[in-house]
UniProtKB/TrEMBL annotation:
Domain Mur ligase central: 109-287
Protein name (database record): UDP-N-acetylmuramoylalanine--D-glutamate ligase
Pathway field: Cell wall biogenesis; peptidoglycan biosynthesis
Family: Belongs to the MurCDEF family.
Function statement: Cell wall formation. Catalyzes the addition of glutamate to the nucleotide precursor UDP-N-acetylmuramoyl-L-alanine (UMA).
Intracellular or extracellular location(s): Cytoplasm
Binding-site residues for ATP, renumbered to this chain: G111, S112, N113, G114, K115, T116, T117
Domain Mur ligase C-terminal: 309-422
EC numbers on record: 6.3.2.9
UniProt GO BP: cell division; cell wall organization; peptidoglycan biosynthetic process; regulation of cell shape
């Protein structure tokens, strides 16, 4: 009996996790990365005697695959992926591959913004009473956890790229935090294609499964009208009255599921801002469905610390608050950040623009932003857009310099906010690297 051949494209966290799981399940495994594989991942592959290559794709070793797991970073348009598909070989994402080897209850969380906070918060609420793993775009890969931990429950943060390559993946509970234009460069600049991609999280669900979603989000509501799903719907809203789901009742979050109700004051939430009330609604609805005690949910919401690089208060220097929101890689995320600013703000913005439309930020910029510091290789669009709106606009390509300029401009009582609204790859390794450089530069002032 010949072994099935699993080819893994991309030797990062998800790729190496899938390779290990595949090997354990009896596949003949080959890992191929067009770039360099990081040393820590190389060591794992060598230690487990898994064949690999880097800085090339050897077609003869790839096109003979029975199944290909591709990294979410590789677009479908890549010639190699086209070749693989033309041969009729199955291409899947890591969450699709790993889900075949677990019977766990899966909570899948997607959305343009808020998914990391919601996933981390949901995990925080559940882990008090359940054995639960946190994976997907966070921490150790899902495949690796299925192999090593075999948790009975998982909270997965899932990107649209990962959903593009699912076939049978079906979370018991799906959460859709919101949908705003993002990554349109991967979706032929069609917002509709991106919406369809996000909704794939529910495509295999039945009425025994649940879809929790933002009922204030037009893109979601309109899509559901035109393309109903099988799932039991549990919406959340800040403005509507919701019979089954979550809504605001004066200053309280009210969650109702089959007449079973839980009420929590918003004043006690650890995280600030309207968008975090929504994140709390989504996470609490999941916890309520999975029978976490009401008292535990309330306490967990009060002591949750938040996520690094997401509106993270770094330090106050000379009465100026420095805030790291490096995780804001699109305009909508920066919208939430500027919305929550309650003082004059020096705003550090820029990077790789994914076809951004900055219009929704104009009212906040006019009202709250006193200076704009453009931090990117190409800042022309930012200068054209915001040049006339603020008194001071500067450009730089170094984080240390951006922070020094901000320090000079900011006065007592101001905020300095890094909320780039762009991807980080022009000057930094990733948004974490960008955020850490910001924090280091601030601490070195």
């Amino acid at each position: 009996m010949t072994k099935h051949r699993l080819v893994v494209l991309g030797g990062g966290e998800s790729g190496v996790g899938a390779a290990l799981l595949g090997q354990k399940k009896g596949y003949d495994v080959f890992v191929s990365d067009k770039g360099k594989i990081k040393d820590n991942y190389k060591e794992v592959l060598i230690h487990n005697e898994i064949e690999w290559e880097e800085e090339q794709h050897t077609e003869s070793k790839i096109l003979n695959a029975d199944i290909v797991m591709k990294s979410p970073g590789i677009p479908d348009k890549a010639p190699l992926v086209k070749q693989i598909r033309d041969k009729g070989v199955l291409v899947v994402s890591e969450i699709e591959f790993a889900s075949k080897f677990t019977t766990a209850t899966i909570v899948g969380i997607t959305g343009s913004n808020g998914k990391t906070t919601t996933a981390t918060l949901t995990h925080h609420l559940l882990k008090q009473e359940l054995e639960v793993g946190l994976a997907g775009n966070i921490g150790d890969s899902f495949a690796k956890q299925v192999l090593e931990k075999n948790h009975p429950n998982y909270v997965l943060e899932i990107s649209s790229f990962q959903l593009d390559d699912i076939i049978g993946f079906k979370p018991k509970i799906a959460v859709l935090t919101n949908i705003t234009p993002d990554h349109l460069d991967r979706y032929d600049y069609q917002f509709e294609n991106y919406i369809i991609s996000k909704f794939r999280i529910a495509e295999n669900q039945t009425k025994e499964d649940y879809l929790i979603y933002d009922a204030d989000d037009e893109a979601i509501v309109n899509h559901l009208k035109k393309h109903p799903v099988q799932s039991t719907l549990l919406p959340f809203s800040l403005v509507k009255t919701i019979e089954n789901g979550a809504c605001l009742d004066k200053e309280n979050i009210k969650i109702t599921i089959d007449n079973n109700q839980i009420i929590m004051p918003t004043a006690k939430l650890a995280l600030e801002g309207k968008h975090n009330i929504k994140n709390a609604m989504a996470a609490s609805t999941v916890a309520h469905l999975l029978k976490i005690r009401k008292q535990t949910i309330r306490e967990s919401l009060e002591n949750f610390q938040g996520v690094e690089h997401r509106l993270e208060h770094v330090v106050k220097i000379n009465k100026v608050q420095y805030i790291n929101d490096s995780k804001a890689t699109n305009v909508n995320a920066t919208y939430y950040a500027l919305e929550s600013m309650d003082a004059p703000t020096v705003w550090i913005v820029g990077g790789v623009d994914k076809g951004n439309n900055y219009e929704e930020l104009f009212s906040f910029v006019n009202e709250k932003v006193k200076a704009v510091i453009c931090l990117g290789v190409d800042n022309e669009k930012l200068i054209d857009t915001f040049g006339n709106m603020v008194d001071v606009i500067v450009e730089t390509q170094y984080m240390s310099e951006a922070v020094k300029i901000a320090y000079k401009i900011a006065e007592a009582g101001d905020n300095v906010l890094l909320s780039p609204a762009c991807a980080s790859f022009d000057l930094f390794e990733n948004y974490e690297d960008r955020g850490r450089q910001f924090k280091n530069a601030v601490r070195n002032l």
